[in-house]
Amino acid sequence: QLACPLDLGCHSVADVVVSKLNTYESKPPISQILKQVGPVGIWSGLGLRIIMVGTLTALQWGIYDAFKVYSGLPTTGAKTEEPKKN
Predict the structure, then answer these.
(1) Over the stretch 26-73, which tens digit does the pLDDT of each residue have?
(2) pTM of the full predicted structure?
């Protein structure tokens, strides 16, 4: 559960660096770009990315559970009946 936010944050930082690299004709070192953008700028766009990924994930789970209901399978998190003990 912790891996997804960490992965999301790493991809966001990498996307900011790649976007800045593509604006230059001669590619400066990554350290120069990180200094230019700063510690706050490196996380720009992370909030929108979290909303996008969260929405898409929720839709995927909804479709998955709807398919399971349609197929007659138990839904995600559904409680199953335990066999009765004699």
Answers:
(1) 888 888 888 888 888 888 888 888 888 889 989 998 998 899 889 988
(2) 0.58
User: Could you give the maximum distance between any two Cα atoms of the chain, in Å?
Assistant: 78
Amino acid symbol at 16: V
Three-state SS string across the chain, please?
Answer: CCHHHHHHHHHHHHHHHHHHHCCCCCCCCHHHHHHHHHHHHCCCCHHHHHHHHHHHHHHHHHHHHHHHHHHCCCCCCCCCCCCCCC
Report CA 19 to chain centroid distance, whole Å.
19
Closest C-alpha among 3, 1, 30 to residue 14: 30
pLDDT band at 5 (very low <50, low <70, confident <90, very high): low
Instruction: Return the structure tokens found at 70.
Output: 């349609």
